[in-house]
């Protein structure tokens, strides 16, 4: 027999001792007072089966023989972790993120600031708030470090406005276009 619309039996099997209420997006368990198995600290549990106050206590409770030594690919520090599908590459999320920046194709701004001097390549300004990254070949998909150039906002603006025509010529074209549009409106 199918369940009525908006109800679910997932996650409520063998939970008769726990109080729960039906919410808009499923079952929400009422907070309950619990005691951590590892450090005996009192905490408020929002889950039906939680036994630990934090993931640190949960990891401390596991025997060391279940953990394996790994070496971080970014900082080369040794660390212990349970062997899992993707475990063993990095000691922390920070190291994982820094590795992606240093070796990945994403975050070209961070990569440019890692490998290039922190000043404008054209005028030499070194104020971080004014610096941005420019693609030399105008292709944003080409994030090779040789294609990236750190520029101040003014120099970057000049490169894009001056491509093909000077800034004055572009502004003259815009003014001429607006004048023609105004003449068309007057005729109608």
Rounded average pLDDT: 77
Low-confidence regions: none
Describe the sheet with the most strands.
2 strands, antiparallel
**Strand proportion:** 15-25%
What structural class results from the helix and strand content? alpha+beta
Radius of gyration, Cα only, in angstroms?
Answer: 30 Å
Q: Could you say which overall geometry the principal axes of the C-alpha atoms support?
A: elongated
Describe this structure in words.
This protein is an alpha+beta fold. It folds into 3 domains: 21-61, no CATH class; 64-93; 107-178, no CATH class. 30% of the residues lie in helices and 19% in strands. The protein has helices at residues 55-61, 93-103, 108-115, 153-161, 167-187; strands at residues 20-23, 26-29, 32-35, 42-45, 67-71, 78-82, 131-135, 148-152. The strands form 4 sheets. A two-stranded antiparallel sheet has the order 1-2. The longest helix has 21 residues, at 167-187. The radius of gyration is 30 Å and the shape is elongated. The mean pLDDT is 77.
